[in-house]
Amino acid sequence: MWRTIRDLLRFNRQFAAGVVLLTLVAAYSCLSFFSPYPPNDSFVVPPDVPPSWAYPMGTTSRGQDLFWLLSFAIRNTLLFGIVVAVISRLLALVIGLVAGYSGGLVDRALMSVNDTFIVIPLFPILVLFYFVMREHMSWGLLALMMACLGWAYDARLIRSVAMSLRTREFTETGIFSGMSTRQILVEEHLPYVLPIVFSTTMNNINWSIGLEVTLSVLGFTDINTPTIGVLIYWANQHTALVAGIWWWIFFPVLLVVMTFVGLFLLAVSMNEHIDPRSRLGRTGT
Amino acid sequence: MSGALLDVDNVVRTYAGGSLFARRRTVAVNGVSLRLEKARPEIFTIVGESGSGKTTLARMILNMVAPSAGAIRFNGTDLSTIRGGRARLAFMKQVQPIFQNPFEAFNPMKRVDRYLFVTARRMAGVSTDAGIVDATDGALLSVGLSLAEIRGRFPHELSGGQLQRVAIARALISRPALLVADEPVSMIDASLRASIVNLLRDLRDRLGVSIIYITHDLATAYYISDRILIMRRGEAVESGDARTVLDNPQHPYSQLLKQSVLSPDPQNRPMNF
Amino acid sequence: MNDRLPGPVLAVTDLRAYYRTKAFGVEREVRAVDDVSLSIEANEIYGLAGESSSGKTTLIKTIAAAIQPPLEVLAGSVVFNFGGRSVDMHHVDPRELAAIRWKHLSYIMQGSMNVLNPVRHVKQSFVDFAFRHIAKPMPEFLDIVRGHLQRLHLAPDVLDSYPHQLSGGMRQRVTIALATVCRPEFIIADEPTTALDVVVQKGVLAMIHQIQRELGSSIIFVTHDMAVHANLTDRLGIMYAGRLVEEGRTADVFRSPRHPYTAHLIASLPRLGDSAPKKGLEGAPPNLANPPPGCRFHPRCPRASDICGRDTPPMVELAPGHRAACFHPEPVQPA
Amino acid sequence: MTGYPVYLLTRLGQFALVVFIGINIAFIVTHATPIDPVEQSIAAATQYGSTSPEAIGLMRQSLKELYGLEGGLGEQYISFWRRVAVGNFGPSLSAFPTPVSVLIGRALPWTVSLLVVSTLLTWVLGNLLGGLAGYYRQSPALRFAGILAMAFHPIPYYIVAFMLLIVFGYLWPILPISGGYMMNMPRDWSSAFIGSLVIHSILPILSLALVGLGGWFMGMRSLVSNIVTEDYVVYAELGGVERRRILASYVMRNALVPQVTGLAMSIGAIFNGAIITEQVFGYPGVGTLLISAVYAGDYSLVLGITTVSIVAVSLAVLLIDLLYPLLDPRVRVR
Questions:
Q1: CATH of domain A33-283
Q2: Do B122 and A188 touch (CB under 8 A)?
Q3: How confident is the model at residue D326 (pLDDT cuts 50, 70, 90)?
Q4: B positions 190-209 inside 8 Å of A (CB)
Q5: Are C289 and C250 in contact (CB under 8 A)?
Q6: How many separate domains does chain B show?
Q7: Does residue C189 form part of some domain?
Q8: Chain D positions with Cβ closer than 8 Å to C
Q9: Does residue B31 form part of some domain?
Q10: How confident is the model at residue B73 (pLDDT cuts 50, 70, 90)?
């Protein structure tokens, strides 16, 4: 797997661009640990100051230095995205591999249930979930809920990989060489499954951050912890746009767009690498 | 029944196809029987066209597919009674497969010698590293290769012929009594084919290994087999000593197969096919 | 039939075509076809034999001008002569090339599975490929097609079925009917029967044989199966590692092969009724990315001498119509 | 019984399963939480001044009935399904006494029309451009279109809608940025009304299209670049068939088959996008209704919208699935 990443870094421009973008965003989010102001304190700096040397990203109407506040926001948003992605990977892997390897009725049953989760519109359900939870809504609960609804599409991708592996002849050579099932899964099949898990993880982080931003901007999450969506929510509450405080909206949107494009580039370049036909085309074997 | 190395007793295999509402049952193998004697190692060839069920029969003998009816006994033990890891390992020590496409039989991402070492450790019960290297080198020598030649190499770095020899060597490490080879030479160039076929005959004579040889190529079957079984749409139409059967086949299908084989010299070119 | 002018229908002279790839910083040049020259007369089935990595598929791709990167033609020419009009396949404008395709030059491919468009009726393929060449209104065109199918013992209602409804053998017969409906002068057959069962194969070969005799077209028939060559082709060319190593009338080549590789190929053929021990060839086919110097067969040749390792043997006429590229050709076997 | 009838029955079975599981999720979400919506409504209603206990008791009883929350969990489950089956979710609290189903009935056509128009536009354009880009790989124009489509694709619906709102609202105000039609316009299907209808829908459709286009574009491009190496395409090229005809009936025709399945699978996500985009532009569809229902604390309206959304999306998927065999004869004819 690491060899694949090293190759991609050297020869795939998209992958390299994605890594650069995400490193910038990650570095910036680490800055939050050195922030002079705790995230929720307001009126620690003069409000509504446009970007200047003293305040590189300007300040908000609630007297917060946007530069440090945004570092907290992006850190929380990334953390949320990663947590949802990890939990949903577990579900997607278990269901995908079980369906792929067992085949027959189990596969058909699992996949028809799986397809329902792909089709069902999740946004109204999450809104309903907020409506019922109201102030009891916590980031942990939202992450769990989104993870339980967001694994279906990826489970189908993982299942197709597992299914093809099960019927490949080198699996049977492994069995007749005395390899244990665990050894076959880990040593023979994992190198084929990891790339697809990697690219679906990138897409899932994108999906969960997208939904987090959307729900927070409407105020449907815990609006006291700063995230990108919450920042934009408060900017809207203070009608920042009308009041001309454009930077309060511009910088959060810019940063989250950088994250989306970075993650997307990683996912796309890894997908291209997985597709055997394109790889064969390149190496001409 | 004591003397039987392998006793395939009237096996049947059906597949339920189609979706939830349209159940379709296809009969892949319908009542086939054959016996291999322990005392007499031989090359038993199963010939048939695509869809004749010869591969399904092979997979049943390898205990990878369970028969829908009938039974298969190896050294007297019924394959359906083999349960649990240890029992399966014991069976697999005795019966090893050789696959059609060597490039598919090895994981392209892994080095080739790895399969040999694992087989030596797990199947032949060799524990010391030196023992493993010896067992592997010995097996490779018996197929005309050496460990030095293939050490650390990936499948795509070897030719089809070399890779198939490595596959046979891997199967030999656990000293099996029976090899089940499903079209082992159909992917190999004609010029190299003879060497692999000779190797299989040599294994029978030198190591006393019995081989079930699956093929659609009658000419190679004639050259290599002791006994032969001709299958058509899941059923055995004719079987017996290879040369007697092929010199003058009795069953009309066997005759049709024989006539369809193109004789490789232009002199007796059938005028209008 | 169109008037047959003397001279070869196809002349390939000193053709060189390589695959040039650049991946992960590694430049690779596979020398698939190296200085090949051959010519095919009218009303003749020319067999092209060769094993894996012999370059035979690349050669017919170049002949059919189906050249996509990474394949490049570096030298030589491929010239067809269709009833007085000669066409250099690599220096012809696309419109004229399209006009030739299927009217004068057609193709039968190996893929038995999906050579026909899986989502359209078979009839649609006939319309797409042949309608523009047969200048007749649609109803008449379809009558011609039905007549053609009948002559090849195919039921006309096959036109209204989808490819997936036909068996492998039937699909191949339909493809042959499609390739011959415009009565082309030259047909390229790329391993048309390799994916078929023995019984079906015989029927398809008989069909090709019958249609060729009727149309008087020339066919270049590519397969690794020497038995098929023995039963169908008039002349035979053997390719090894990107080069033509022997060529002659099929009967002569089988009776007394002059190149050691051909001799081995024919000797190692299993024959029904003959269980005498056969000898396998040592070593493996060379890697065309860096082929051995001189004669490319010398590392595996039982009669190699030091000259074989240095110089490349030219194609020499050893008997009327029988050429071979070897410094130590096999002696002539008694007739 | 093979071919189309079998396919039809399996798809109907799948439709029933989607609706069943979707409605159950909605039921579980509403009933598995510690908070009782009735208490919340009472708390909201009684926060200004004291009301007598009997009044609260009466309100609690009527609210329980209204929300279908009386009796044990089993009874609630049955009454829940009966309300869904009939489509009656009781009166809406925030717009008392109009029933929830009427409110949704008014909003749904807007969302459906927005969804259908933007999805068709995006699907056709994305597949066309993607197909061309896959077939003519070297053309710079298509490469640039690809980069543009891919730039917007990863950005979520809300952010793209928000950016368009800023651009067309403040920087270059030539398009209306909220509402479905001119406020005081009589709804008499006159050309003026229809004109204003169209102008108001431009921004939401553009927003949905910008996000969706990249997905179809990339999907189609990779499909086409694989199909181009298939035997039947190579054979058609060897047959001298015109490149336009090869592109249309050999390449695109085969590539569209998986893209129809892709459309069916992404309807749910596109629906999400539509209701989010509506909210940004104040478009009078189900999305805006849902968000305002949440702010108004109208429990039965939110529940009604969620349930109707699930059924509507499942119906759309069923419709697309039934079209699929028209494109792929291998399913229609055995």
A1: 1.10.3720.10
A2: no
A3: confident
A4: none
A5: no
A6: 1
A7: yes
A8: 230-232, 234-242, 245, 249-250, 253-254, 257, 327-330, 333-334
A9: no
A10: very high
DSSP tag of A65: B
Question: Which tokens sit at A53?
Answer: 């040397």
Please state the φ and ψ torsions of residue D200, each to the nearest 5 degrees: -70, -20
> Would residue B251 count as lying in a domain?
yes
Are C270 and B261 an interchain contact pair (Cβ–Cβ within 8 Å)? no
Domain that holds residue B197: 38-66+84-261
Contacts of A11 in chain C (CB under 8 A): 24-25
Residue C334's pLDDT band, with cuts at 50, 70 and 90, is low
pLDDT > 70 in chain B, percent: 95
D273-296: pLDDT as tens digits: 998 899 888 888 999 999 998 888
Q: Is residue C140 part of a domain?
A: yes
Domain with C181, as residue range(s), is 10-233
Write the secondary structure of C234-278 as one string of H (helix), E (strand) and C (coil). CEEEEEECCEEEEEEEHHHHHHCCCCHHHHHHHHCCCECCECCCC
Neighbours of D, requiring at least 3 CB pairs below 8 Å, are A, B, C
Is residue A197 within 8 Å of residue A158, measured between CB atoms? yes
In the block, which residue shows the tokens 């795509």? B156
D320, D326, D332, D333 alpha-carbon torsion, rounded to 10°: -170
D49: confidence class by pLDDT, cuts 50, 70, 90: low
pLDDT of residue A285: 30
Determine contact: A276 vs chain C, CB below 8 A: no
Q: Could you tell me the pTM of the whole model? A: 0.85
CB contact under 8 A, C102 and D240: yes
Task: Give the Å distances, CA to CA, from D334 to C50, C125, D283.
Answer: 39, 20, 46
Number of structural domains in chain C: 1
* Of A23-32, C203-212, C267-276, minimum mean pLDDT range: C267-276
Q: Structural domain boundaries of chain A?
A: 33-283
Q: What is the pLDDT of residues D100-151, one digit of tens each?
A: 888 888 899 999 999 999 999 999 999 999 999 988 888 888 888 888 888 8
Burial label for C14, CB within 10 Å (0-12, 13-18, 19+), is exposed
What CATH number did the domain enclosing C224 receive?
3.40.50.300
Partner-chain contact C101 D240, CB within 8 Å:
yes
C316 within domain boundaries: no
Return the pLDDT at C111: 62
Give the mutation candidate from B65, B95, B107 for the A interface (greatest A CB count, under 10 A): B107
Residue B185 belongs to domain with CATH number: 3.40.50.300
Q: Which chains does chain A touch, 3 or more C-beta pairs < 8 A?
A: B, C, D
Q: Of D311, D284, D291, which Cα lies nearest the Cα of D108? A: D284
Structure tokens at C14: 């000193």
Averaged pLDDT of chain D: 85
